[in-house]
Amino acid sequence: METPVDPLGLSASGWEAVLESWGEPRYRGRQIFESLHRHRRRDYALALELPAALRARLAAEMPIRLPEIVRREESRDGSVKYGMRLSDGALIEAVFMPGFRSFSEANEFEDARAPDAGPLPIETGESAVRRPARGSTDPQERFTICVSSQTGCAVDCAFCVTGRLGGGRNLLAGEIIGEIDAVLSDVGRSPEGLRVVFMGMGEPFLNPDAVMAALDVLQEVLPARRVTVSTSGITPAFERFAARERRPNLAVSLNAADSEIRASIMPIERSYPLAGVLAAMRAWPLESHRRITVEYVLIAGVNDAPADADRLVRLLAGMRVKVNAIPLNEDPTYLPGWKRPSEPAIDRFAERLTRDGVPVTVRRSRGPDTSAACGQLKGRTEDPRRRSR
Hints:
This protein has twelve helices and ten strands. It is α/β, with parallel strands linked by helices. The longest helix has 15 residues. The radius of gyration is 21 Å and the shape is elongated.
């Protein structure tokens, strides 16, 4: 059975090829792409620049299927977690994270050591941080959408709820773009000011075809520097992503500075050892203004000691990186026994890296009160391993 063409996941050149195969001028393909992704029309009938017969054929042969928002949970900090149902009934989650005007170069996560400081201020005054309004188009008011690339995750990191719930199927490129579209429509925003991070459910490097196709679409409307792809270290895929003419930002989830500890919390270490991951990172071509982000989930008593920080410094010596230290987002149901380090321990770890010249940000993950934070996304509501027992 032939796989249906995925209209939202087609790049401009992909659309041109489709239209050429239909006997239409290639420029019609560019018109369709612009209608879908710049004008964000989700009904071919609205593309009046196209002939009526072509609009009718598109509607019949290439229908646009958007994910259905079935759950919406808003956090105190303005983040929103979305539960979405795909056309086959599969469930995924995506997260909207508002930006703040005072951070003109803010990325999706601000540095914040204290976990219980509450939401950012919304009071008036010159020193206050102003929240972006729904529907705002101010380019200074940047915001981020965290997207899923799979309906589960087979990597099974010990500190990640998504991994605890097991694997799932790959998303199509159009389903990934559909996540973004659904969120933009719900919050009333255009892509102006948008950043996209592939840090939701799934391992992006295990779904390279769809993620690359989604990047082809996104990078027609967003600068490459505003898209980040995260991986746990699937080394065979590094070269393919690195070969792109316009590369996304790269984030690599290391979480330990030696193979033994890493294997104890990341089973993927046995298939793709740390040494190979570091070699792939060193081979990644970096523009002069970019660094690779090293994601490091801090777990009390596991990888948060000063000696762990010292090992990490030595491991990253000579590499243009920045460390994103992520205090564990606890979940007693799915991550029993795992604890977030104390604030002094977090500070000691970060200060050790800073002392030795390694840039570090301590991330306060957005939306922890709605389980929308790093490592907390889950399309299912029941651990299949618990059910089998």
